[in-house]
Amino acid sequence: MTSLLETINDPADLRRLPRTQLRALADELRAYVLDSVSKTGGHLSSNLGTVELTVALHYVFNTPYDRLVWDVGHQTYPHKILTGRRERMGSLRQLGGLSGFPQRAESEYDTFGTAHSSTSISAALGMALAAKQKGEDRHAVAIIGDGAMSAGMAFEALNNAGVAEGNLLVILNDNDMSISPPVGALNRYLAQLMSGHFYDAAKNVGKQVLRAAPPLFELAKRLEQHAKGMVLPATLFEQFGFNYIGPIDGHDLDALIPTLENIKHLKGPQFLHVVTKKGQGYKLAEADPVAYHGPGKFDPAIGLQKPSTPARQTFTQVFGQWLCDMAEKDPRLVGITPAMREGSGLVEFEKRYPGRYYDVGIAEQHSVTFAAGLASEGLKPVLAIYSTFLQRGYDQLIHDVAIQNLPVVFALDRAGIVGADGATHAGAYDIAFLRCIPNMSVACPADENECRQLLTSAFEQDHPVAVRYPRGAGAGVAIEAGLRALPFGKGEIRRVATGHPADACKGIAIVVFGTLLYPALQAAEKLNATVVNMRWAKPLDTRLLLQVAAGHEALVTLEDGAIMGGAGSAVTEALNAAGVTKPVLQLGLPDKFIEHGDPVRLMALQGLDAAGIEKSITNRFSALVMTGRPALKSVA
Ligand SMILES: Cc1ncc(C[n+]2csc(CCOP(=O)(O)OP(=O)(O)O)c2C)c(N)n1
Ligand SMILES: CC(=O)[C@@H](O)[C@H](O)COP(=O)(O)O
Ligand SMILES: [Mg+2]
């Protein structure tokens, strides 16, 4: 028998359904999301929480003519399923498959690409005012979570939108969760506003707009439940210029649909506050929305299981352990995360050092300057932040940290290709955008042990240092227990090409920055090349570099970051400054965005696995590689 969901190939099909069938459709949709994500992995608890909201939005609004902009966009699997991509969900976040976030190139219903949080209101306002300017009667709807609401950019947009005349609706999807529990002074402010004035206001607003509303005592119960949540007070939004409506039950189609129908006919900026549950409808995710925020594959019948064989330590775990060990040694250490406690490995640190742990919410700009403030008073802040999310705090890094030369350690997780999350989350640019800043240093550990050692090296400095390391596990080397630092700014020769007289200027040297050291060593065995583990993109170990350049006919630079402006560029700049002319082949990430997929496969496709490195070097320096004679192929 054909399921109801199988009859929906686009929202027009949905809008043809009688309203009485929407509950059954939502139930099927939720089951489909759970089944699909359990097979592919991906974001789960946020998607389970937006099933009814998604059905109601596509039912009430004339999508894609009316625009939906999903903040972060990790919660758009129901949206993708209802907009013609149901059959492709099996390809989620795989090479050539569906993105885990909305992408304009993927569907006309994905009106704006998201993934970094808190952009939706700005984008939707742009769409609303464009429609106004073009004389189009079009709605623009931003759906933003309570976590995403904590970012300054969201308030910048609210501040602007509240006085704009466009057909803009902002929907706050308040499930009282970020990835981890939400943080911020707003919660305290909300608690104060939950009684008295706000409660009365909410009650009155409820009567005005809602027809089929949950009984008011249910509303009161929810308001009490969310005293600590992110139920932002109507007064705040009205002061911004919005007509605030809610909070309403975001799982009740009989509340959602009449409310949205009403709002469609209202003029001026509208703000609808819906209350949902992260993980709704799947008990294990309801009980632990953090664990089910972004799970791998699992059996829904039994839920997430601990891996039978202990997996190799990840760089994140190495960082988390180092942070605790260094905190024990140095009371000045404080740990900061912008809403990524689990992802950055600070769970244990928070337990052991709650007074020195700061989760500032999704507020990367603030996290950088906050760290600078701590450092200006003699503390030693370690800011754990994904490379890609540091992009949000770039001006603060220059203006508040580097110019004042404050000793902040930037622990940059997810450096390089991340894989499933795709181009928006790649940590591809940090070497390029950091090494050009005076006072900044950039360490590139080759493995987990060097990561621990270089974190200590960074922590010992009296100026800002970034230590970059990739998502997942490394080479699996033994990790020493102590807190020994590696020499600041110094690299090492890891392999010497054999068969050449020591003083001969022969063969190729591969100059590596970071974890590509290991595939480089593999390639070097085949090429009989020298391998240099530089460890630092800045300061460059120029002495070592010039020594190696003098001893070889050609150099290859290798990094898991953008070639343009990256570490390889630092090498060519240094050779040029020293008046050394040698052919240099720069290997790294090309000048294009690399889509989602398995990270190992993506790196191979970029020629950054051992075979690819060997091939690139052979193609460029064939004569050198084949015979070792000094004849150099003319360097194009
Ligand atoms: C700028 C930025 N920082 C951090 C993240 C990581 N991140 C993804 S989802 C999320 C929590 C979002 O919470 P909320 O908006 O409430 O959505 P929910 O998951 O509760 O549906 C975070 C911190 C991000 N995507 N973008
Ligand atoms: C949606 C979002 O931005 C985060 O959930 C991100 O996907 C986490 O990435 P990791 O899985 O690498 O921690
Ligand atoms: Mg939330």
Automatic annotation (TrEMBL):
Its EC number(s): 2.2.1.7
PROSITE patterns named among the record's database cross-references: TRANSKETOLASE_1, TRANSKETOLASE_2
InterPro entries per the UniProt record, alphabetical: Dxylulose-5-P_synthase, THDP-binding, Transketo_C/PFOR_II, Transketolase-like_Pyr-bd, Transketolase_BS, Transketolase_C, Transketolase_CS
Gene Ontology biological process terms in this record: isopentenyl diphosphate biosynthetic process, methylerythritol 4-phosphate pathway; terpenoid biosynthetic process; thiamine biosynthetic process
Pathway info: Metabolic intermediate biosynthesis; 1-deoxy-D-xylulose 5-phosphate biosynthesis; 1-deoxy-D-xylulose 5-phosphate from D-glyceraldehyde 3-phosphate and pyruvate: step 1/1
Keywords of this entry: Isoprene biosynthesis, Magnesium, Metal-binding, Thiamine biosynthesis, Thiamine pyrophosphate, Transferase
Cofactor(s) in the UniProt record: thiamine diphosphate; Mg(2+)
Superkingdom of source: Bacteria
Reactions catalysed, as given in the entry: D-glyceraldehyde 3-phosphate + pyruvate + H(+) = 1-deoxy-D-xylulose 5-phosphate + CO2
Cofactor note: Binds 1 thiamine pyrophosphate per subunit. Binds 1 Mg(2+) ion per subunit.
HAMAP family documented for this protein: DXP_synth
Protein's name according to its UniProt entry: 1-deoxy-D-xylulose-5-phosphate synthase
Source organism of this protein record: Rhodoferax sediminis
Gene name linked to the record: dxs
